[in-house]
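Q: I'm a student working through a structural biology exercise. My instructor gave each of us a protein and asked us to get a predicted structure, then write a short paragraph describing it. Mine is PatG domain-containing protein. I'm not confident about reading structure output yet, so if you can add a plain explanation after the tokens, that would really help. Here is the sequence I was given:
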Amino acid sequence: MNPETPDTEAEAEVRPPPSAAAMPDPAVMPDPEDPRPAPAPVQPTVTQACCDCATAGSLDGSGEDSGAGGYVYVLGRVHAVFPDLSVQREFLQAAGADGTTYTTDADALYRVLSAPENRYIARQMCYVLAVQGVDTYILEPGDPTVLDDLLEALRPVEDQRDLAVIVGHLGPVAPPDACQGLSVRIVGVQHIWAFDSRELIQAIDRPDDTSSEEFERSAGALLDRLLQLSDNAGTEPADRALNFLTVRDQEIYRKTNQKYREGYTLSAVEAMPSRLSAGSQTVITAVFSYTHLQTNVTEKWFTRVGLAGLFPFRVTPLQSYYSR
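A: Happy to help. First, here is the predicted structure for PatG domain-containing protein. I'll explain a few features afterward.
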């Protein structure tokens, strides 16, 4: 090999072989003898993900979280709010039509809205549930008959323990124009009743060897303790279970009266998930602790509450509890 002669093979640019994509497709190559135009090449189809689509269970299609879902079992006070000026003026005209004098605003709202001839005004009102004085929910009747119970819950009460019990479905946050700009969640009310503390205590089966005054005193003390625990929105499983026991379970009142007579005092109330919870059914264990005033010995009793749907229910009766 002549060293002065350049090696054309070594210096030649190495090019990759043409790819198959660059080669013309024989199926679409034009026939020089065919007068028809050549077909256009097929372009690949690209599907893009939708960025504005609603996420199932969390978005309502507008890209914002609807927040709907879940159950509510809550205790509080119901009051009525005028949604706009026109409803307020119509109410005032109806209230002054018969010349009746009302002692308080709450009394006027209850009496006027409860009158059958003013039902058209009652249907336009906005009903709000306050828990411990804080507006928590806007109430929407799930059935026309629920409106009667809502109006009954407006009745003026003297005992601070007289509350309303609301059972329903948790909805989204109310729009700004729904109830004078009140920005709270809406509850679709399925059941509501006015909770009268005296009627509850008197309805409990009193032991034969206990006077009515003694029993009402012990039951009232337990009710006060449970109502302190009911300072909640009634959406968490433990809160729903305790709220249910407060207004529906007589056995805990009888047991508390018995322990008071034996020298014990109610020292603690706890609610925790049970190991029996499975699948869609949540079970809450409610533990009531009683401590002896002289020996400082603590006894614990418990019951279980099932939360498989809208209405809580008791799973097991009240029985002795042993810590693991």
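A: Here are two points you could use in your paragraph. DSSP finds nine helices and nine strands in the chain. Residues 82 and 125 are 6 Å apart (CA to CA). It's a good idea to check both against the output above yourself.
Q: Great, thank you!
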